[in-house]
UniProtKB/TrEMBL annotation:
It comes from Sphingomonas pseudosanguinis. Keywords: Hydrolase. Residues 8-181 form the Exonuclease domain. One of its GO terms (cellular component) is cytosol. PANTHER family: DNA POLYMERASE III SUBUNIT EPSILON, EXODEOXYRIBONUCLEASE 10. Its EC number is 3.1.11.-. GO terms for biological process: DNA replication proofreading. It comes from the Bacteria. One of its GO terms (molecular function) is nucleic acid binding. InterPro entries: Ribonucl_H, RNaseH-like_sf, RNaseH_sf. This is Exodeoxyribonuclease X.
Amino acid sequence: MQRPQPQIIRVIDLETTGQAPPTHGVCEIGWQDVALGKDGRWELEGEGGSILVNPGRPIPPITQAIHHILDEQVADAPWWHDVARRVLDPWPRRIALAAHRADFEQQYCTPAMTQSADWICTWKCALRLWPDSPSFSNQVLRYWRKPDGLVHERGLPIHRAFPDAYVTAHHLRDQLNEASVAQLLEWSRSPGLLPRVRYGPDRGKDWREIDEESLIGFLSDRDPDVRFTAETEMARRQGGGHVGRPSAQELLL
């Protein structure tokens, strides 16, 4: 009897020439799968990998200084449209894609390339599940959480597509073992719910610690994450119930 294929979520990481297409292009894609095991627990699946991509334009020095990918290394690499589909829409088909700050990857990984896949943002989910982290970057979470099984050398160098996808996959695995896929997807569709104020006189404070006048000022903030967090906090206060962010347990479906 043929063994049933596992449920897969594929973690993606991109290295690019800059912030957004069409001005910029992809110069490397990395991936690492996370699968649901027979015991109902999620674990890393397979070896993952990475592919260099010809971005179709020079890589600016300021970007090379981050990921250290050289123009000559990608000159003969395949084009993005020749690489993307087979990485983003693998067989057995994944039930979702994931990335740390997935809004960035989604600019390049269009619905046409992903078959309109759902995305999990491990950054947004970390804000909800691990609000006490000193920061929420991929690497700070790595060293603050120390995920089980993460091989230090395999997650290096940082700012390269496979090592970053490998680290993110450990965060995703642990998030999936704390909350359902449906819950992670729901959090990922909304702006980030920030545990602490980012800037201003109340910088670093828990949102429940600031007074209402300050909170009202954030309701018109240009940053959608700040604005969403302020709106959420105001709604809680006006509801007459819990003031401030609830615990991770309260947020689970």
